[in-house]
From TrEMBL:
InterPro entries: AraC-bd, HTH-like, RmlC-like_jellyroll. The lineage of its organism: Bacteria, Bacillati, Actinomycetota, Actinomycetes, Micromonosporales. It comes from Phytohabitans maris. This is AraC family ligand binding domain-containing protein. The keyword DNA-binding applies. Residues 110-159 form the AraC-type arabinose-binding/dimerisation domain. Keywords: DNA-binding. It holds the Pfam family AraC_binding.
C-alpha cells in the first residue's frame, strides 16, 4: 500500500526514501533546533517566513521554499513582523534519499485538482491539512493530515477536486531513466 501513517515503517517497500515527517509551528518568540542524526533532513516552509541558520550561513525561507539541512543541524526562527502575526508552519522531513530535486506546497480544492500524471522519479506527498481521495497505482485511498503518499517512478497518480481544501508538500527525489522533470502524461490515444 502506498499510503503510510507518519513514522510507521510497517510494510514499506525498500524504495521508499522518506522515514517520517514532522510539522513544526513557530510563533514570534520561538525557535526550533534540528539536531543531526543518522537520517537526512529537509525543511519545507508551508506558510509564513523563517530563517534557518547553520554552519554554512543563514537562509530565509518563504512559502514553498525548501532546504536540505547540513549534517551539522540547523536553528530555525520565525520571521513574524507583527506582534499578533500568524505562526510559521514548517514541515521537517527525514529520510535516506540520495538527492532531492524539488519540493513544493500544493493544494487540491473544489476548483483545483491535481491531474493524472507520472514522473521519472519517486514522488512523496506529505498531507499537511485536510483529507480527501487520491488515486495511485490504480487504487483509491482516503488520505488525512499526517499521511505520507509514496508513488514509485512511472506510476500514475492524481487527486481530484475536493469540497474542502487538502494541502500537502510534494517531495521529488533524483530523476532516473529518461530523467524528465515535471508532470508527464500518457498518450491518451493508447487507452
Amino acid at each position: 500500500m502506498p499510503v503510510y501513517k507518519n513514522g510507521d515503517a510497517t510494510g514499506r517497500p525498500d524504495w521508499v526514501e522518506i522515514s517520517d515527517t514532522r510539522p513544526l509551528t513557530l510563533d514570534r518568540d520561538t525557535a526550533a533546533r534540528i539536531e543531526p542524526d543518522d537520517l537526512k533532513s529537509l525543511l519545507v516552509c508551508v506558510s509564513g517566513q523563517l530563517t534557518v541558520t547553520h554552519d554554512k550561513g543563514r537562509v530565509t525561507l518563504n512559502r514553498s521554499d525548501w532546504l536540505v539541512v547540513p549534517d551539522t543541524g540547523a536553528l530555525l526562527h520565525a520571521v513574524v513582523p507583527y506582534i499578533y502575526g500568524p505562526a510559521v508552519e514548517v514541515l521537517h522531513v527525514r529520510g535516506t534519499w540520495s538527492a532531492i530535486s524539488d519540493a513544493n506546497v500544493f493544494q487540491a480544492r473544489h476548483d483545483v485538482e491535481v491531474e493524472r500524471h507520472f514522473h521519472d522519479f519517486h514522488e512523496y506527498w506529505a498531507i499537511v491539512h485536510g483529507s480527501g481521495p487520491i488515486e495511485t497505482e490504480g487504487e483509491w485511498y482516503d488520505v488525512h493530515a499526517g499521511d505520507l503518499v509514496a508513488t514509485r517512478m512511472g506510476d500514475d497518480h492524481h487527486m481530484p477536486a475536493v469540497e474542502a481544501a487538502v494541502e500537502a508538500v510534494a517531495i521529488e527525489t533524483e530523476p532516473h531513466g529518461l530523467k524528465r522533470l515535471g508532470h508527464l502524461h500518457r498518450d491518451v490515444r493508447s487507452r
